[in-house]
Specification:
The longest helix is centred in the first third of the chain and has 39 residues, at 2-40. The protein has 4 domains: 1-41; 45-99, OB fold (Dihydrolipoamide Acetyltransferase, E2P), CATH 2.40.50.140; 106-288, 3-Layer(aba) Sandwich (Rossmann fold); 294-376, Orthogonal Bundle (Helicase, Ruva Protein, domain 3), CATH 1.10.8. It has helices spanning 2-40, 105-108, 127-142, 144-149, 168-178, 198-212, 224-227, 236-253, 275-278, 294-304, 316-322, 328-344, 352-363, 373-376, and strands at residues 45-53, 56-61, 66-69, 85-88, 95-99, 111-113, 157-161, 182-187, 216-221, 261-267, 283-288. Helix content is 44%, strand content 16%. The protein starts with a helix and ends with a helix.
Length: 379
């Protein structure tokens, strides 16, 4: 009897284990069946709502056809707005769910900085340009009611012109920092696409993204890539670039409000730009960012060497004189090279000889051939 009782207990334990395993297998089978049903279910069509009526929604499917369809009752009515992106049943075309807005990967991967870490204090020698930026961009962000009281519209955009490396991008990031605006930066050449309509769509999505993240500053570098003067005789590629330009003009004119979105563009060749871009109401101000003079070079050197330990033999004033023809970016590169020289030799301070070596390195990349290395040598 004792042996039979132990055997029965063992069989009961094995039964419980097997029942637990069966339950787990059934759950797994149920999950797999659900996955199979999802894989076998017909795909949904992506469309856009054009209007809402008492009978349902007027939608445009992905192939361009317009239908009046029913709407799933569980969808929040507040999300059913014109332009919303929706999923449609393949058979009945009824609205199944609201999809999030989508943007092209090129737009999404553009330089997006919630708050740039560049401030006006980090920029030397551009006080006049900073003042104009504050008047054009900062005032309209921080005091919109003042413009309404005067019955005028705030400026929409500002165009920065000047040679490469003079600080145009830094100015745009600094004004975004001072206004707590999101910085969206993109190079205009990326908006010039091969296929018809693609460039215009990218511009539209870029401004939609900016409105979604407002307050925002859209920075378009090398604007002349899409903003050059329109010609009567043009190739198909030129015509597509012109379509992209027309979409940019339409966004700036604004069927949709740009109140909390400002546009800053930069170019090295302002003479190539189409006149339509420069008329009042689009780029209201054109600000030239010149190559730094001696005083500006001194200010730039002070900014970049503020945290750098220097020996007593280093004269920033002498450096400012010897760096004639350098842009702000080249002066920053000079300071960086000098620091690298000191670190490589294991010293804790940057010396006069470090700047002399750095000057030889940087001057090879300076385009001003009228200044020789003997003129620049920091002795």
């Amino acid at each position: 009897m004792r042996d039979l009782s132990e055997s029965a207990q063992q069989l009961l334990t094995e039964k419980l284990v097997l029942e637990s395993e069966v339950a787990q297998v059934k759950k797994r089978a149920s999950r797999l069946e659900e996955e199979i049903r999802n894989l076998r279910s017909p795909p949904m069509i992506v469309g856009y709502i054009q209007d809402i009526t008492d009978e349902g929604a007027i939608v445009r499917s992905s192939n361009g056809t317009v239908f009046l369809v029913s709407v799933n009752n569980r969808i929040d009515d507040s999300r059913l707005v014109s332009g919303a992106r929706v999923a449609l049943n393949q058979d009945t075309l009824s609205v199944i769910e609201i999809l999030d807005d989508s943007w092209d990967p090129l737009v999404v991967t553009a330089e997006i900085i919630e708050k740039p870490d560049v401030s006006f204090e980090d920029i030397g020698g551009l006080d006049d340009q900073i003042s104009k930026l504050k008047e054009t961009v900062e005032l309209s962000f921080k005091s919109p009611e003042a413009f309404r009281n005067f019955g005028i519209d705030p400026p929409k955009g500002i165009l920065l012109t000047g040679s490469p490396g003079t600080g145009k991008t830094l100015l745009a990031k600094a004004v975004a920092n001072s206004t707590d605006a999101v910085f969206l930066g993109i190079v205009a050449s990326e908006l010039a696409q091969k296929y018809i309509g693609e460039g215009g769509r990218l511009v539209r999505e870029l401004f939609d993204l900016a409105r979604n993240k407002a307050p925002a500053i859209v920075f378009i570098d090398e604007l002349d890539a899409i903003g050059s003067k329109r010609l009567d005789t043009a190739t198909s590629g030129d015509r597509e670039v012109q379509r992209t330009l027309m979409q940019l003009l339409a966004e700036m004119d604004g069927f949709e409000s740009l109140e909390n979105v400002k546009i800053i563009a930069a170019t090295n060749r302002p003479e190539l730009l189409d006149e339509a871009l420069l008329r009042p109401g689009r780029f209201d101000r054109v600000v030239e960012v010149p190559m730094p003079d001696e005083e500006a070079r001194m200010a730039i050197l002070n900014v970049h060497t503020a945290k750098m330990p220097l020996t007593k033999g280093v004269s920033l004033q002498n450096l400012a004189i010897k760096t004639e023809g350098f842009s702000g970016a080249e002066i920053m590169s000079l300071v960086t090279e000098a620091g690298v020289c000191a670190i490589a030799e294991g010293r804790k301070k940057v010396s006069k000889s470090d700047f002399s070596k750095a000057l030889r390195v940087v001057e090879r990349n300076v385009n001003d051939s009228s200044i020789t290395s003997n003129d620049r040598l920091y002795d």
